């Protein structure tokens, strides 16, 4: 059983943060909210999303599991005008999801969850450094790095106590330093890792400019990024594996 | 003889409602206004447009007929800034149309009307149902249907007294019901017909979001849609032939 | 030695007015400001730009010469948000230009000036007619002419005392007449020349809509256009060679 009413904005935010990595996903319809975990085909980027029951206007579920084509569901949410609500209801018999927006009913065929890539176990990592920054600073770093390179180094200078972003291109370089004053928070620790810019660009697309993003970093370790949406009732965790440093 | 001054907005609205179906058309320069009738190459969609002399700042004509390339004339109207007027004058000798916008003169070569597809006779049809709705609801129905299918069923439920839109895709369906409360007006009658979405999408492009659109429907019959523009001094009628129901 | 701070808007305006003609250019870092001269590969369009030291928040230079990839430098300026400043500093040893925007540092590899097309000597021409008009009227003329042709005639009617624009297409023509009343200033003289519209369209892109553009014209002679930016502390001169009249 699944029956819920949610603002189109909240639904879109939730779906967008997953669809930057995968096209299809499993959605766990838990009693206390939705839960999605997914990993991209190359096994490099992972997402763990939860959307609390409190983020919905009304919410009833009893632990079911559905598989969805994300772009379809995003299109449905995108049909709503600003401020409109989306009513969702699962038809257990036909395995279809009914979405209703102001009298318009969309019947979405679900995907067999068994046909969808297995959900990842996102590991607990004891990462030594934490940087908390605004979404727009993530965007700024990623956009600048993208001008010169296809990978990006993120790290923390322990002595000088700043977070840095480095991108080295064939001819040009980009370097950004953010001290504790520029950041919301900085927990200094040994951290320097190289990442694929393509993945960070995708993840960046889903991060609101005004979101508070916590990024945990280590020495040639994955990065984990956390941010909230829907007034904190939705939470996203991204994990991105590092690239091997060539030098 | 033809000499007229008209706001660029009004001229654009008139041309756009025809150009969604055809690239060239004949324009009748009647004493009481312009008149255009056209049918698309496949003979499926027809348009009948009239723009009253009152819609013009000034208007003089004596029943001539010209053939025009619609995109050319739309480009001319598009050069004007908001609120600017377009002066049109036919040079009978050279068979060219002079368009003038704030000192800028554009000389448009006309097309021999005989080389343009014959104008359709749009039949009088005694259609049993009438639905009057806002342009934005037409847009909503067409946009939603387009997500799942390339055709769309429009009909009226006589028992429950509502207008409905149905689109069935390979996996997903869209269904919209609008009761008399959701509509500007509803005259219940036996009506259910299937239409090509491509045509409705094109016609929808020319329908202003705030227009009052009257749609006449029957049982496997064409749909006729009427709406006004230029404060009611322009009138458009679209007629679209039904598709044969496959089931 | 070169060290300067400038608003991103001013830097972008300067670069854009050159990049419409060439991809790379030499920049003279004079004591009293920047100076760029460039000619397009076909030797048809030339630009002479100066940006006074006063246009900068701070400016120090001693007559150096650098070669830059314009789109790279434009991208850097484009990263800044509205109102942000760009700090530029030349590293003489590495021959790299450091650009800094709010903590973000971009290191730009310079190009050997000797590898860049030689700078043109923009000739002094004693052109008999001068037309001073708003940038938006240049845009209007170029946009209209582009609808019918790939070249454009500019001239002055000495008897009737107006500036005119003529574009003749295969079927359609565009004609614009601007009298002294429509212009900021008009110095009547013998002038009629044909120009490639492609070049004028490119130059037009760099002309602000509210700029005061002075255009000097002659009889089958180049056109010279002058306009300012950055509150008059930047000056651009374009020179465009005429096309040979075919008739």
UniProtKB/TrEMBL annotation, chains A, B, C:
Protein name as annotated: DNA polymerase sliding clamp
A GO BP entry: regulation of DNA replication
Organism in which the protein naturally occurs: Halovivax asiaticus JCM 14624
Record keywords, A-Z: DNA replication, DNA-binding
SUPFAM superfamilies, A to Z: DNA clamp
Gene name of the encoded protein: pcn
Any one Gene Ontology molecular-function term assigned to this protein's record: DNA binding
Pfam families on file: PCNA_N
Family to which this protein belongs: Belongs to the PCNA family.
Known function: Sliding clamp subunit that acts as a moving platform for DNA processing. Responsible for tethering the catalytic subunit of DNA polymerase and other proteins to DNA during high-speed replication.
Residue ranges occupied by any Proliferating cell nuclear antigen PCNA N-terminal domain in the UniProt entry: 6-97
Self-association and partners: Homotrimer. The subunits circularize to form a toroid; DNA passes through its center. Replication factor C (RFC) is required to load the toroid on the DNA.
